[in-house]
Amino acid sequence: MELAMEANHADGPPRKKSRHLVEQNLAKRDLAALPYDILVNIFKYLDLKTIGVCATLCSTLNNVSKDSSLYQKVTLKYNMNKEFLESFVSKISYPKELCIEYKFFDNHSDFEDYSEFDRYVRIALTKCGEFVQSIRIDSCRNDDILLLLSECVNLKELALYRCKSSFQTLTSITTLTTIKCVSCHFPQKIASEVIKSNEGLRKLYLSDNTNVNVNEVCENLSRYNDHMREIYFSERKKLRAKSLRTLGRLTKLRSLALVSGTGFECDPEDSLEQIAAGCSKLERLIIYGWKEINDDNLMAILHMCTQLKELDLRGLNITIRSCREAALSLPFLKTMDVIKCNRVKKSQLAKLKQDFIEIDIPLE
Fold first, then answer.
1. Residues near 230 by Cβ (< 8 Å), separated by ≥ 6?
2. HEC states along 205-268?
3. Is the pLDDT of residue 15 over 90?
4. For the chain, where are the E strands, in sequence order?
């Protein structure tokens, strides 16, 4: 009897463990038994790390983890470990969006060795470049990597942040509809040539770049890019009224932002009148920090651009007269910001806000 009891005691724990394994296997089998398309849709809600864990559970989930539709938006970061990058890059086939992030670069950054990361970036661009339609690259200083942009023959959207290169291949790209460059270091003339090469360009965002002549850019836009809809300028090079005047030829323009760093110290002359006459369908206008603009310069815009919904005039040399005229003349106006306009008193703005409650007018 003692032997029988010992046998029962010995058999007990294994039976419990076995039952636990059976339940685990049933749960795994139930998930894997779902139709492939449903599994793919479930995986689309998971982050990359979780997809990687699921891929180790069984061959079915491993196959699902390799589905190219899971990797339409791909981000490669410099701090991803080697094993993850190797597995990740092997699964990418037809990405539409690609984001490549190096460590944030500024003038005080120490030298970093990105040779390992560069290798996987190079593989991704060479393997999948022809399928990429949108690419963002942050803090890349490797000319060899940026030259691989030539692989992206169907590229429509390009965003570069804190990059430095010869950018020689950029001028060979002719499919761009959106360009965004922030704090990049370009060789002379390259930015203007890229704009000239992409006649289908619709959106342009330039801020704090080196060797970007915004006057040349304006003139090239007016000659070669008549489909432009959005422009944002915040550049170091001083913008001349003569060049700004040429933007009046862009009749499809819907959004114009002129943000001053040191770039506006000239008399606007009749440039705003020319823009108002040619770009009468503007819906968003930002003119920030241009102290030479007064009430008289602005009136043409307020009377002719009647589709305006957003007006940002911070730091201009205007009075409450322009503010009230905008509120009266622009039937679709939703937002008007005139903070830092020294000739506009807070009490005047408060009264205007009371009179036009449908317009959002910040007081501070």
1. 202, 203, 204, 205, 253, 254, 255, 256
2. EEECCECCCHHHHHHHHHHHCCCCCEEEEECCCCCCHHHHHHHHHCCCCCEEEEECCCCCCCCC
3. no
4. 73-77, 97-101, 134-138, 157-161, 178-182, 203-207, 230-234, 255-259, 284-288, 310-312, 335-337
Answer whether 284's CB lies under 8 Å from 255's CB: yes
Residue 153 lies in a domain: no
Q: Is residue 36 a part of any domain in this protein?
A: yes
Note whether residue 34 is domain-resident. Answer: yes
**Using one digit for the tens of pLDDT, what is the confidence trace for 278-319?**
999 999 999 998 888 999 999 999 999 999 999 999 999 999
pLDDT value of position 55: 85
Q: Is 333 helix (H, G, I), strand (E, B) or coil?
A: coil
- Domain for residue 224, yes or no? no
Residues 136-154: tens digit of each pLDDT: 999 999 999 999 999 999 9
Of the candidates 178, 182, 186, 242, the residue with the CA atom closest to the CA atom of residue 208: 182
- 335 is in which domain, residue-wise? 283-364
